[in-house]
Every structure is written in C-alpha cells, then in structure tokens.
Design brief:
The structure holds 2 protein chains of 2 kinds.
Chain A: E1 4-15, E2 18-30, E3 35-39, H1 46-54, E4 62-71, E5 74-75, H2 81-87, E6 92-95, H3 99-102, H4 109-121, H5 125-138, H6 155-167, E7 173-177, H7 185-202, E8 205-210, H8 213-219, E9 222-227, E10 230-236, H9 237-242, H10 247-254, E11 304-305, E12 311-312, H11 317-327
Parallel strand pairs in A: 3-8, 3-9, 6-7, 7-8
Antiparallel strand pairs in A: 1-2, 1-4, 4-5, 9-10, 10-12, 11-12
Helix pairs in contact in A: 4-5, 4-6, 5-6, 6-7
Chain B: H1 2-29, H2 34-39, H3 45-55, H4 61-74, H5 88-123, H6 128-142, H7 145-159, H8 173-202, H9 205-212, H10 217-245, H11 249-254, H12 260-269, H13 273-301, H14 303-310
C-alpha cells in the first residue's frame, strides 16, 4: 500500500449561506520518496487538499464531508486530535506559501524552529537549541542569527526558516505549498535546489503545490492537474509533459511563452475559473474549453485510464486528437 | 532604549508647560470669584476687594501667569489651597492613596476578568460562550456606573449588610463595592477588545504554522496567539489606568470616598484655583508617565517596536 493514499477527498467551505466546493472527490496515491505535483490556478483547491491532509483547515467555515486520507495505514480524518498532533510537524509537515506572514513576529526565529524539535524529539531545551542552529545552517543561515526576530530577515531568509522548521524533525511527508511563489526568481532556484537536496538526503515524499510548470519539471515524479477542485489529468511527469491530453493541461502548456518563435502576444486560456459555489454541470472546464461540445455539459465525467496509468477526465479525447492531427 | 526614554522624558517638559499654561488660562477665563466663595455671601465689597488684592487676583493675566509658572516650575511649589490653607501637593498625595487603591483594583479586575472573557469569546467564536460573554459585555458597557453602584449598595450593604455603604474606614472591605461598580464597564470593553484582537490573530498565518508544528491547542493559544493579541490591549489598559488615576468622580461621590476626583470637583466648584491647577498638572504628569510606561512595555513585548526605538545603529 502506498505511503499516502487520498480517497474521494471533499472539502467544502460555507460562506454567507453558500456552499463553496473547494475540493471534489480527489484521489491520489504517493509512494515513499516520490514527489507529486498538484498543478492548477489560484483557487483550484490545491492548498485545501494539503491543509485537509494535515487537518489544519479553518473549521468552520471549512468542512470535510467525505473522504479518506490513509497515511501509513491510518485514516488521518478519523484519528483523535491528540494523535494528529503527534503526526503534525513530526511525520507530515508543511512549507507555507507566504513566508512574510508564516512566522510569529514576536518570537525569535530560532525558537520557532527549536519549538518543534523540542516538542517531537523529546530532547532537552538546550539540545533543541543546538539542533535548531544546525537546521538554520543547513538552509544557509548562520547559526548566530538564531536570536533574531522575523522582521530582521529578508523574505527569502524567512522562507528558508519556514523550510527549516518543516524539515526539522525529518518528516516522511512534506507538503510544499507554493514554496517559491513569494520569492525572487534568483532565490527560487536556490530554494528548490535546497528542497531537492534535503528530500534526497532524508528520503522524504513530497506534495508540491504550484502553478509553475518549470518547478514541476524540476522536482516532481507524478503530476496531478487540478481544476475547480478536481483532478482533471494525472500521470507521470513524462506522460503529462510529453503527451498532455486534457484541454486545460494543453492550455497550460500553450500559455507558456515560447522563446524560439517570434510572437507578439501570449496565448492565455480564455475566460475565468468557474465560481466554486456554482460549478458548471458536466465537465467543470467546458465553458472555457475550445473543444467543448454538447456532450461535455450533459453529465459528470469520470477519470479514465488512457494508457499506462495516465488518467484523464475528458469525453472528447478522440475528437481532440483528430482535430490536432488536422492542424498539423 | 535608554536614549529613547531620556528623549521622551525631556519631551515631557514642554508638555507640562503647555498643560500649565492651558489650565491657567482656562481658570482665568472662567467666571466666578475665589474671594467671594472664600469669604461667603455675607462679605462686604470692601472686604472682597481687600481679599482680591491680597490674593493677587487684580494683577494682569501675564503677570499672574508668570508668577504661577515661576512658582510651579522653578520653585516646584503647587501653592496652598485657598479653601483649606494647606499645601496642594500634600492634599493631592493624601487623597491619591484612595484613588490609587481603587484604580489598581479596578485595573486588576478589568485585566483578570475581562481578558479571559474575551479569550473565551474568541475561541468559541459564534458559539454559545461567545454570545454569553458578548451579551455580558454589552450589558456592562450599557449600565451607568452610578446606578450599578446604588444597586450594589442596596443589595450588599443595606439589605444583606455584608459590606459598608460608604467611607474608607473599613480597610479593603470599603473598596469592594466601589471597585466592582467602577470596573464593570472596563471589564466589558476589555473583553470586547481582547475578543476582536484575538479573532484577528487566530486567523493569521503564523497561527496555522504553529498548529502545523503539532502544538496542542492550548500552546497555540497561549504561547502564540495571546501575546500577539495582547499588544493592542496594552494601550487600552494604560489609558484606563491614567483615566482612573484622574479620579472616579461619580464613584467617589456615591461612596463618599475622599479621592482625587472629589478633591478636584470640590475645588472647581469653590474656585480653589491652586488645587485645580495643581491637580491637573499632577494628573497630566502621571498620564504622561503612564503613556511612557506603555511605550516601554510595547518595546519589551514587540521586538519590531523595540527596533524602531533603537534605530538602525542599535544592532549588535
């Protein structure tokens, strides 16, 4: 059995009487040492998936009406809160999206790392301080800066602190929620290298949440394309990158600027993501899909295996293939 | 930090001067004649004129102001009360002890009852406990202190006879009812402020980070959320403390407590200028010192503010 197995996970938010369907029946597996990339637009439900796994969704307004999250055989949604606390930070930890607000402003940076070590490793305070200094050095921050406060750190350094905190107890599963989005491009590469290196050293599995296909190419083994809270296409990195099938995925690759050809305009995916309180009937992407036809809006479409574990939630694959063949 | 405190202390000199000039001018413009209120309605015009001359009330504004400022800031003398003929400073200090006891007890009640109520409301946001404590807070701010004081006296002093009705002759027991009556509104506003501040902090990202570390709910709440939530509350507590040291006029009147508030109101009514001016000046001083203390406390709880005080070169 896979180390992490998410089955039919659903997350809803209630806002002003409306039910917002953030995550709808998401299922995926993750093996030890592997990295899955959750790719999609802002608001697609990627972060909600990660937070549901760690059970840190804001409840209320969030709710998990159904689903199972098996982590090393236990269903995380069913265990007691006390047991969950032992898993958080120790076995599963999370790197947060916005380093600027993820650290407690009135607590010393080092202490915030030492806290998690002291909590889970059953060591003395002094040992946890030493360990926290080592963690700081591992992410490239001098150990003597342990005693400084977050406001004395730059954004990139704060993100490193957040990473050090997440990795402090050598977690078996790391949830990285857009770990580089808030960073300069120059630092992005450094941070990604660091995550990759640490992952290999500790043999950690990872869920990489991003909307940056470049990052996916660099760190992921498998990719799940998330749209409107559903996995629309799933496959290995090679399957998705070399042979994208779902129209949204095709659109994502199409919207990447091509440096070789001379074009005046970028080619975005037209339209906006659907309102999650009022999802379109049938395929959630059909209002924006250039290949949509009447059958797309008839009924909800299931994920189908289109060969070698490559899953796709589209009913017009054959037609699309024919259209593309014509274009060429 | 020491430089900052020194700077702030120096700044208090112009503030005190400003207060002195302002209160002197207000009292100058105020209608009413201290000589006549001192000698009573039976005094003749000749006696009044002589008294006015003796008190220096006939001199021009600028001369009197100059004399007052010289006396206050060079000789450090607040003068003697027209009415009692005693030192204003000694009079204020004697009454301050009662006011201080009431103020400290009220602040203690406000902080130690109001804060937990606010925390409870925030952690049970939109739940029953939130509703209950916010309803109590609403009642608290709506009830006038004098009415509550009278009701408390009626129940606990008159009917049950547990506590004294008024005066300060029974030690701490004399202060129980005044403090409860006086702190009710403070408790209520403390609870409301703590709740809103706490709600804001609980929703912030670093609280999610703390939770994601596997800390217990309790640790997240008291180690991460509360210290952050209390920062804005410090100002409210400081303000309340300053206000209460100015005397709680209504409560002092209802319970016949010889505090600063009554001293001042009596002095205003009888045009006892030295007492009014001395009182305002001392209260101004106390208020400024408390505000300085609030800012120092801020620096200790919030490293970002401390960094501002110390400036850029303060980094070790």
């Amino acid at each position: 059995m896979a180390m992490l197995s998410v089955k039919n996970l659903t997350v809803e938010y209630t806002s002003e009487g409306e039910v917002i369907h953030a995550v709808n029946n998401v299922s995926f597996d993750l093996e030890k040492g592997q990295t899955i990339g959750l790719v999609g637009e802002t608001g697609a439900g990627k972060t909600s998936i990660a937070r549901a796994i760690l059970r840190i969704l804001p409840e209320p307004p969030a709710r998990v009406p159904n689903g199972e999250i098996f982590f090393e055989g236990k269903d995380l949604l069913k265990i007691r809160e006390e047991d969950m606390q032992k898993i958080r930070g120790k076995e599963i930890s999370m790197i947060f999206q916005d380093p600027m607000t993820a650290l407690n402003p009135i607590m010393r940076v080092g202490e915030q790392i030492a806290e998690v070590i002291h909590l889970h490793e059953h060591c003395t305070k002094a040992e946890s301080v030493e360990e926290a200094k080592k963690m700081l050095e591992m992410v490239g921050i001098p150990g003597e800066r342990y005693y400084e406060y977050p406001h004395q750190f730059s954004g990139g350094m704060k993100q490193r602190v957040v990473i050090a905190m997440a990795l402090a107890c050598s977690p078996t599963l790391l949830l990285a929620d857009e770990p580089t989005t808030a960073l300069d491009v120059t630092i992005q590469a450094q941070v990604l290298d660091m995550i990759n290196e640490l992952k290999q050293k500790l043999n950690t599995s990872m869920i990489m949440i991003t909307h940056d296909l470049g990052i996916v190419a660099e760190v992921c083994d498998t990719v799940a394309v998330v749209y409107a809270g559903e996995i629309m296409e799933y496959g290995t990195k090679e399957q998705i990158f070399h042979n994208p099938q779902y129209p949204y995925t095709i659109g994502l690759f199409g919207s990447l600027p091509d440096l070789k050809s001379d074009v005046d305009r970028l080619s975005p995916i037209e339209g906006l993501p659907p309102n999650p309180a009022d999802l379109p009937k049938g395929c959630a992407f059909h209002p924006r899909c250039p290949y949509a036809s009447e059958e797309c809006e008839k009924e909800h479409i299931e994920l189908k295996d289109i060969g070698g574990g490559h899953l796709c939630r589209c009913c017009r694959l054959r037609e699309i293939a024919a259209l593309k063949a014509q274009e060429v | 930090m020491i430089r900052y405190i020194g700077k702030r202390l120096l700044w208090m000199i112009p503030v005190m001067l400003g207060i002195a000039i302002l209160i002197f001018s207000i009292m100058y413009i105020c209608p009413g004649d201290p000589a006549s209120s001192l000698l009573g309605p039976s005094a003749s015009a000749v006696e009044l004129a002589a008294k006015r001359e003796e008190m220096g009330l006939n001199d021009p504004y600028i001369v009197r102001l100059g004399r007052y400022l010289y006396q206050t800031f060079i000789k450090f003398d607040l003068g003697t009360s027209y009415k009692f003929g005693t030192s204003v400073f000694a009079g204020l200090m004697e009454r301050m002890q009662y006011t201080l006891v009431i103020a400290l007890l009220c602040m203690a009640l406000q902080v130690f009852v109001g804060t937990p109520l606010g925390i409870m409301a925030a952690t049970h946001h939109n739940g029953v406990w939130d509703r209950v404590s916010m309803f109590l807070a609403l009642v608290g701010v709506s009830i006038p202190a004098f009415w509550l004081a009278l009701m408390l006296v009626l129940i606990f002093a008159v009917n049950l006879g547990w506590l004294p009705t008024s005066g300060v002759s029974n030690g701490l027991a004399s202060f129980i009812l005044p403090c409860i009556a006086n702190s009710f509104a403070g408790i209520a506003s403390q609870a409301r402020h703590t709740r809103s501040s706490m709600l804001e902090v609980i929703r912030s990202d670093y609280i999610v980070t703390a939770k994601a570390k596997g800390l217990s709910r309790r640790t997240v709440l008291f180690k991460h959320a509360l210290p952050n939530a209390l920062i804005p509350i410090i100002t409210i507590v400081g303000n309340g403390m300053g206000m209460m040291l100015g005397g709680t006029v209504i409560i002092e009147n209802v319970f016949a407590i010889p505090g600063v508030g009554r001293y001042m109101t009596d002095a205003i009514n009888s045009r006892d200028y030295p007492v009014v001016m001395g009182g305002v000046l001392i209260l101004g001083l106390i208020f400024s010192l408390i505000m300085l203390l609030v800012d120092i406390v801020y620096a200790f709880v919030d490293p970002r503010i401390k960094a501002q005080y110390e400036g850029r070169k303060g980094k070790k």
